[in-house]
Amino acid sequence: MKIVGLSGSKVGSKTRTAMNYTFKSMSEKYPDAELTLIDLAEFDVQFSDGRNYWEYEGDTKYVSETIMAADAIIIGTPVFQASIPGTLKNIFDLLPVNAFRDKVISMLVTAGTPKHYLMVEQQLKPILAYMKAQIVQTYVFIEEKDFHRKEITNDDVLFRIERLVEDTVVLTDTYKLIRKAKEAEYDF
């Protein structure tokens, strides 16, 4: 199983810290999974100009092809101005409309206030649904108060991250079995 983590911002440390916790949990619980963590702060991704994702070069091609090859994607994003960062939106723009068909997507969100959960419900989930994702309905929402010196200090958040990891893998395995059974119905 190929699982890609996408840390969707070029600035700040909280989302990357949360993604590090998530991938540590993932590697401990599912050592056979093929894990790739993409932190957009470490890549020079071009702005989408309408080309197909495989026509780009360099970091843009690597990031988009890695996402397209994944079975599951864990998106980590901060909330900026009550919205997703432009860097994350650009990734969505680089990919085709049905990029997430047959992919399980889970989300981890960092924000300054509890009211920012609405961004996930009103912006991120609709984009992912439009792109045909199988969305893990429960996501991890982490407030600024849950961090101290680049560490997560709230045990409940750590528990929810572990649950997100488990839900992502279980849902991915389940959808694979469903697709396999559906394909077996065809006689060619």
TrEMBL record:
The UniProt record lists the keyword Nucleotide-binding: no
UniProt signal peptide: none
UniProt-listed Enzyme Commission number(s): 1.-.-.-
UniProt superkingdom: Bacteria
InterPro entries the UniProt entry points to: Flavoprotein-like_sf, FMN_Rdtase-like_dom, NAD(P)H-dep_FMN_reductase
EC main group: oxidoreductase
GO MF entries: oxidoreductase activity
Domain NADPH-dependent FMN reductase-like per the UniProt entry, residue ranges: 1-143
Keywords associated with the record: Flavoprotein, FMN, Oxidoreductase
Protein name: NADPH-dependent FMN reductase
Native organism: Neobacillus novalis
